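User: What would this chain look like folded?
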Amino acid sequence: MADQNVPPRRPRDDRGWDAHQHPTTDGYHDPHASYGYGTPPPHPADPRAAYAHPPAAPARGPQWVGPEGFGRTAPPAGPAGGGLPNLDDDEPGRRVGRRKALAALGGTAAVVAGGAALAMTPQVRSLFGGEEVVAGDATGATVTDGTPARPSGQQPSTVRTYTEQNESYMGSSAGEALKKNAPSGGRTFSGPAAAAAETKVSVKTVLAKDPVVHLARRLTFGATPQVLADIRERGIDGWIRRQLEPEQIAPTKAELKLADLPTLKLSPKQLREQREQLNERGAQPHRELVDATIARQIWSDRQLFEVMVDFWNDFLHVAADFDGGEVYRGSFDRDVVRKHALGSYPEMLLAANRHPALLLYLNQNDSRADAVNENLARENLELYSVGVDGGYTEADVRQAALLQTGRGINDGAYVFRPERHYVGKVKILGFTHANSSQDPKKAEAAIDAYLTYIALHPSTAKYVAQNLATRFVSDTPPKSLVNRLAKTYTANKGLIKPVLMTLFSSSEFWAGVGQKVRRPMEYLVATYRTLGVQPDAAPNHDNGDNRRTPFARGLRQIQDRMRELGQYPMGQPTPDGYPDVYVAWTSAGAMVRGWNEAGDIAAGYRTTFTHTKPEKLVAKPPTTAGAYVDALAKRLVHQKLTDRERTLILGVAGLSAGDRVDASLNGAVTAVVRAILASPQHHLR
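Assistant: Here's the prediction, encoded as structure tokens.
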């Protein structure tokens, strides 16, 4: 007889959880939330809900499910509202107030037209007695798009549901200012070293024009003394070649410690089968995936690979927190993004379109010949290949949606259901196919032929090239570079390494010093890297009940802090991924929180890791304040500061350049380290 106290099991859906029950209320909570920064926020509302409109009234032919034109808002650039946390108040005896000195030094900031330094945004200036904040978006960027759904056959460029994020932001007044200080053109050399040697940096920037430091800033998540020494030892060409072969680079201690995350290597099938045991242990697969990504960004020696993983996670984006991410997002990371990050984009797109994560995220599992859901078909065109201005029409979207019917998920695995597949000739962006059979091999071959076609389309070549150039060169990359990268992409049938080699061998890359600002996540990762934080627990760490290792707890603390800053790996809930331009991230709150976190890291407050004491950052500290600040700047931002910047930082310490100091900078070394990490030199990448 059944136990009267045990509720009957509900049927489980293909997301791996009980049907009609959200995982955040079905056991996947974090019993150790108090070890981080408090209870993490719940899953956001299902991002696919914006697409899930009821089908049209019954009519002849298939019914359609698709977007109805909804408002698009910019991603949060840091937490909204609330007071500013523990930015030091001015202290008696300080010759320059810490708050004003930090404000003068820091800020995620736009390169002003014709200027040599960074200009704070109006929001930041208002915090420190500057001009009043103007209501609305301070950058002038348009952040909503409430246009109606596209009529069939009309060009998407005239009636959009999404805008191309980076170009939309850069169309603002702030974007126009940035364009005036970006490289305007260039050429490709025989290799990266030759391009570096022959390129003159003419743009105005606060960064030193050292090609080795520039390379380390752009191809890693933050330069470190070890990375700089490695580049100089191997040479620019040798170091890049090594980074393009990540499988030849040994895992670091931190990467080996990823074994502390129990769900990381489990398959979707194992995650489904072990769900109850994992619940009891407080393991959250989608959050452990983010934890692991953060660890690799900070500590992996395969830095270019991790940068490209982050790039593809924004380009071919599936949110970690979607309803189903608990089971499938880790596999998508391994089998789609990481497998192809330095390989073939057409193969990546093919793999993504057979993966349960993408099929669930964009409702393809619900699409069949008599009730077509167009979400995946639309995003394959608009976001994952040719782009919003790539030349497709609404008719193309619907033809693609018909062709892709039949693909779905059963019992946690990809399946093709021939009875759901539409049969009939299709024509999409010049691609035509008879699509005359429900036979799985023939039908799937037709779908794969179409996906390969759009992955190699000239508009896709340009779209990938534009995004890569935006990532590695500037927010407004020169058309000359984009065109050369697109040509390489086409000539090599979508292989990524040749495109990257063309990019790194181009004068535009080497001329773009100081033209990129770190996003909040990148700022925090770079801070951990430059401070030399190690993945072992500090001797004074109290690990509580030991149910989770210090390493696992520490990574979760970093993730929670990133969530507060408004950006974390795979965190954008909508399919467009995070924007990669400065004006999308202007936030005084996120900036100040970043400064405070840098101070906490420098002070060693995160005892789940081992920190270098601030007074040990410089091997042999000078005995005068000015020389000591110079040595710290060289160690942390890899260049000297200007005389004005040094004076401001000495003001933070209440010292003059000639004052005698000890290794603790007379007790001010932590404050000075934080001030240097608030400087433009650390905010830029």
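Residues 180-512 form one domain. If you want, I can go into more detail on any region.
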